[in-house]
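Raw record, unedited: MSMEG_0572 family nitrogen starvation response protein
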Amino acid sequence: MPEVTTPAHKDGDFFVNYEDKVFEDVQAEEGQKALVTFHTVAFEGSIGLVNILQAIRLQRKGFETSVLLYGPGVSLGVQRGFPTLGDEAFPGAQNYAANLKKFMKEGGKVYACRFALQMLMGHGEPSLVPGITPIAPQDVLDLKLLHVRDNAIILDTWTL
């Protein structure tokens, strides 16, 4: 059996050179917009949290950024908690709400489809994280079309 002589990794060690950025740090030009859409289920994968973090990053780069929660994606925008709303039943349980609140506090807009909220998820508008704007199902397409018309960056995510 070969002997392992390499010291064990410890907290603070680096595995990669995270400072070696290959591309320029792109910032928004005056009036540029971005739209990040979510058609995913909360807690079913990492893409919901990753896209919220991308929306925050776009906002900080100067893009007028909006988030669209539609289909099962509205599940990212409902209030959660146990034993009461806002309580974190396990570490990370409030990641979606906390990061959506941070995004909105920094000027981002979040929209949630009313059809998906009621029909798919069984929630009403009072279930939404405060600050999220409920929209008609017909507005889902129009929101996308407005961003296309404005030559916005659109990050579209669809998971099942």
